[in-house]
Write a structure and sequence with these properties.
The structure is a single chain. The chain is an alpha/beta fold and about 325 residues long. Strand 9 and strand 10 form a beta hairpin. Helix 3 packs parallel to helix 5. It is globular, with a radius of gyration of 19 Å.
Length: about 325
């Protein structure tokens, strides 16, 4: 299993040595992780420094270095320039894709997201009929903003009637932000590996967003974060702390149904990005392979990620910095 390394303590220094990522403080090593085992490095703390050698080693392996703000949402990501042997042709096809294709692709992503949301509701004993009905109303480009209509029904049903999804709120929104950061970095890595440019989105088009395409493709996976955040909150883990970080890091290896049998979230993200590249090259939206929604059994399997009690920090490495 690839690991997500989270740096949450101030003043740490990150470097590379003989195939390892080293975490040190005051020139004393406090932990190390094999570079080839890392899926992402996420930095939350102040005063963290890293060597150029480490940045290069991560980029060579396609490992994103994610920088987060105080709300646990990403504000910057370092990714490699080279991602795929056919990168030039794929980026040209991506850039040349017309609006009709982009609109068809976006509607397929929204349909997948709504099906995931409906599956999560059903697994928690909530009524899913409203979302199933909205799925049938999604048109090319989602001009009726069915995504937002679904969100207005989904969140009160899943959480509570008065819940509001706000990035800066000081409640369960913090863990949600962190979980989305994990999946966003995973999808960004898959996008680059597929030879696509992460800033050229099919729907998200904010000029200041260098990872618009990752934000497009992460949408179907978001409900998995919601389900885990709900389980964590039920056990009292409703803040971003070492225990919740380890739980969300485990999402990348969660089982999902696939066309050829059981797969994982990581592989599903890779297939989604690769199929999008083919859609750009063939100008055919039907080649997009969106992830199938998890079954009740797979959703119930999230319970294994939830800690029974607050874990104790390691004597050699703070809990927030120990990879799962």
């Amino acid at each position: 299993m690839e690991r997500v390394v989270d740096i949450a303590s101030d003043g740490r220094h990150l470097s590379a040595l003989r195939g390892f990522l080293l975490v040190s403080e005051d020139r004393q090593e406090i932990g190390r992780v094999p570079l080839d085992d890392i899926a992402a490095v996420i930095v939350h703390a102040h005063g963290v420094t890293w060597s150029t050698n480490l940045a290069v080693a991560l980029a060579e392996r396609g490992v994103p270095l994610v920088l987060c703000g105080q709300n646990h949402a990403p504000v910057g990501v370092l990714l490699p320039l080279d991602g795929h042997h056919g990168q030039n042709a794929r980026m040209r096809a991506q850039w040349a894709a017309g609006r009709p294709l982009a609109k068809q692709l976006w509607s397929r992503i929204i349909v997948a997201k709504l099906r995931w949301q409906a599956a999560i509701l059903a697994a928690h004993g909530k009524e899913r009929a409203a979302l199933d009905m909205l799925v049938r109303k999604v048109r090319s480009g989602d001009p009726d903003n069915i995504e937002a209509q679904a969100a207005r029904r989904y969140w009160p049903l899943l959480m509570e009637p008065g819940f509001r999804r706000e990035r800066d709120a000081q409640d369960i929104n913090g863990p949600l932000n962190y979980g989305y950061t994990i999946l966003r970095s995973l999808v960004a890595r898959a996008v680059v590996a597929a030879g696509l440019h992460p800033s050229i989105g099919i729907h998200h088009a904010n000029r200041g967003n260098a990872f618009a395409l990752a934000d497009d493709l992460v949408e179907p996976f978001r409900p998995l974060v919601d389900a885990l955040a709900l389980r964590l909150a039920a056990k009292g883990f409703d803040k971003v702390d070492p225990a919740t970080k380890r739980a969300f890091a485990g999402l990348i290896a969660v089982d999902l149904p696939g066309a050829d049998g059981v797969t994982t979230v990581t592989v599903a993200a890779q297939r989604l990005a690769q199929s999008l590249a083919r859609a750009f090259e063939t100008n055919d939206a039907s080649t997009l392979v969106t992830p199938l929604p998890p079954t009740p059994i797979e959703i119930a399997g999230l319970d294994r990620l939830v800690p029974e009690s607050e874990p104790k920090p390691s004597a050699t490495m703070p809990a927030a910095e120990r990879p799962p």
